């Protein structure tokens, strides 16, 4: 083990000893209750960008009045015991250690959350539905921001996907609603979401403008390194090394996307009427319109949202022009944002793919239930019939979350499946298809073994994110 790795182990141990005097015996969560600091420690194995690491983490959860702070202080070591230094070599890396910071709770007059964002739906979802900036965590850590301002009759919501993308900017969104009483209350809403550069979705860990997928020399500036090789090797030596497989084909260097920029804006307006709104049941009717800047538009009408006790459901009829898709900013958006086209050997943004979308009609429906506190189920399905075109028109999103307090030795369990814009459901070739589950087993007093497995399909290839860790509650 290298000296710097040993130093971090010592520091971690000292922090553990110091926090044990005031930490409480509770699992890691976002504490909304008054009380002291809670702390988790975890150690295990994971894979980041195809490389295996052992890791050790401290995860304090600190409530202070209306504030809450959750940190993720993770130290990754490779097979030689070397610390993954790229997690600690820049001042901006400090942001990556913040899992979340919050003020207040959703529904308060003011709610602010920074860090990893829970799935967000703006309005009735035609523009943004269940967007998350944490779909690839911990391989990709985005530090975002969400705010809610509730000052009746107005409500304002804003979001930012990643502070690291502010220069472009990256993904920004806002929604404003206003409620006015006529015969019945009527809520008017407006939503706008702007992605300043969809190419930022192409992962480029070494920052040389060559995305990881086509990077010839990870950790180095590809174009500079190719110039260096051409300066010390003659043409015949380079050709032989390429033929023997000892050198990438530097005669056909990858395309840099560092200077590429492609923005997209989607805006919408909606109107909702609370037909029933009391403690026992709510029933809303609504209609909404959305437009993708420079492309098509869509309308949903009628739409209904219903909730009573443990049951909830919703449905809407959809009428879309060509070059329009619903839920443009969805759960898989950070995956679909830009993709590699193997035919043209170039990167294609999600916006560019709209040119192939025909007009059509269809529907969306969802339903969920919390069954006597034992099991929470939710499923959402949409289907479009396009005009004379064979175009993928099915989407499915499901989650299953049992209440593990009734299951001996099981601390946490959840499973999910998400598939956007598929021609055939459950086909793993559809971009953005995400399958995952998480199970935590109690090993003893305050000790748990947590297995987290997620697979995201992109360009027909699976990206598996698997973590096995031992969690220690203090």
Molecular structure report:
It is a single chain. The chain is mostly beta strands. It folds into two domains: 1-103, no CATH class; 104-201 and 261-473, Porin (Beta Barrel), CATH 2.40.160. The protein has five helices and 25 strands. The strands form three sheets. It has a 20-stranded antiparallel barrel. A hairpin with a 2-residue loop joins strand 9 and strand 10. The chain is globular and about 85 Å long. Residues 1-35 have low confidence and may be disordered.
Question: Could you list some keywords that capture this structure?
Answer:
474 residues, mainly beta, Porin, 20-stranded antiparallel beta barrel, two-stranded antiparallel sheet, 5 helices, 25 strands, disordered N terminus
Architecture per CATH nomenclature, i.e. the level-2 architecture of the largest domain: Beta Barrel
> How big a fraction of the residues is strand?
over 45%
Helix content percent band: under 10%
Overall spatial form = globular
Taking the sheet with the most strands, its summary is: 20 strands, antiparallel, barrel
Count of individual domains = 2
CATH topology grouping of the largest domain:
Porin
Gap between N and C termini: 28 Å
What's the helix-strand series?
HEEEEHEEEEEEEEHHEEEEHEEEEEEEEE
Query: CATH class of the largest domain, please?
Result: Mainly Beta
Number of helices: 5
Q: Average pLDDT, to the nearest integer? A: 81
Short description, anyone?
This protein is 9% helix and 48% strand. It has 474 residues and is mainly β.
Topology of this structure?
Layout: H1 3-19, E1 38-48, E2 51-64, E3 67-71, E4 73-77, H2 93-96, E5 98-103, E6 110-115, E7 120-122, E8 128-131, E9 144-151, E10 154-160, E11 171-181, E12 185-195, H3 222-232, H4 235-243, E13 264-277, E14 281-292, E15 297-308, E16 311-320, H5 333-336, E17 338-341, E18 346-349, E19 360-371, E20 375-386, E21 394-402, E22 410-422, E23 434-444, E24 447-458, E25 461-473
Antiparallel strand pairs: 1-2, 1-25, 2-3, 2-4, 3-5, 5-6, 6-9, 7-8, 9-10, 10-11, 11-12, 12-13, 13-14, 14-15, 15-16, 16-19, 17-18, 19-20, 20-21, 21-22, 22-23, 23-24, 24-25
């Amino acid at each position: 083990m290298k000296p710097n790795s040993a130093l971090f182990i010592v520091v971690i141990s000292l922090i553990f000893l110091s926090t044990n005097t005031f930490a409480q015996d509770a699992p890691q969560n976002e504490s909304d209750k008054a009380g002291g600091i809670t702390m988790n420690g975890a150690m295990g194995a994971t894979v980041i960008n195809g490389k295996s690491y052992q890791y050790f983490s401290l995860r304090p959860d600190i409530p202070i009045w209306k504030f809450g702070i959750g940190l993720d202080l993770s130290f990754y070591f490779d097979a030689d015991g070397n610390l993954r230094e790229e997690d600690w070599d820049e001042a901006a890396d400090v942001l990556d250690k913040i899992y979340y910071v919050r003020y207040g709770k959703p529904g308060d007059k003011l709610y602010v959350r920074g860090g990893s964002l829970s799935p967000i739906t703006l309005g009735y979802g035609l523009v943004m539905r269940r967007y998350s900036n944490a779909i690839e965590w911990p391989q990709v850590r985005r530090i975002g921001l969400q705010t809610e301002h509730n000052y009746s009759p107005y409500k304002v919501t804003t979001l930012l996907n990643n502070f690291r993308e502010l220069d472009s900017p990256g993904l920004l969104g806002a929604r404003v609603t206003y409620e006015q009483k006529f015969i019945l209350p009527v809520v008017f809403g407006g939503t706008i979401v702007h992605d300043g550069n969809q190419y930022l979705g192409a992962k480029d860990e070494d920052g040389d403008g060559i995305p990881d997928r086509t990077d010839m020399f990870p950790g180095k500036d590809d174009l500079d390194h190719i110039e260096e090789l051409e300066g010390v090797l003659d043409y015949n030596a380079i050709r032989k090394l390429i033929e023997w497989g000892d050198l990438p084909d530097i005669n056909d260097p990858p395309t840099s996307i560092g200077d590429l920029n492609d923005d997209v804006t989607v805006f919408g307006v909606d109107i909702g009427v609370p037909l029933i709104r009391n403690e026992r049941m709510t029933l809303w009717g609504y209609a909404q319109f959305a437009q993708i800047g420079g492309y098509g538009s869509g309308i949903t009408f009628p739409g209904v949202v219903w909730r009573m006790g443990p049951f909830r459901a919703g449905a809407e009829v959809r009428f879309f022009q060509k070059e329009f898709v619903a839920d443009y900013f969805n759960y898989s958006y950070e995956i679909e944002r830009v993709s590699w086209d193997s035919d043209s050997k170039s990167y294609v943004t999600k916006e560019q793919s709209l040119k192939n979308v025909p007009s059509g009609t269809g529907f969306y429906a969802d339903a969920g239930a919390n069954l006597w506190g034992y099991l929470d189920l939710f499923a959402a399905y949409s289907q479009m019939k396009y005009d004379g075109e064979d175009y993928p028109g099915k989407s499915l999103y499901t989650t299953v979350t049992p209440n593990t307090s009734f299951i001996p030795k099981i601390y946490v369990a959840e499973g999910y499946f998400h598939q956007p814009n598929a021609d055939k459901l459950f086909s793993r070739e559809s971009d953005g298809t995400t399958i995952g589950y998480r199970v935590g087993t109690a090993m003893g007093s305050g000790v748990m073994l947590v297995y987290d497995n997620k697979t995201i399909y992109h360009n027909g290839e699976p990206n598996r994110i698997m973590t096995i860790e031992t969690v220690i509650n203090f």
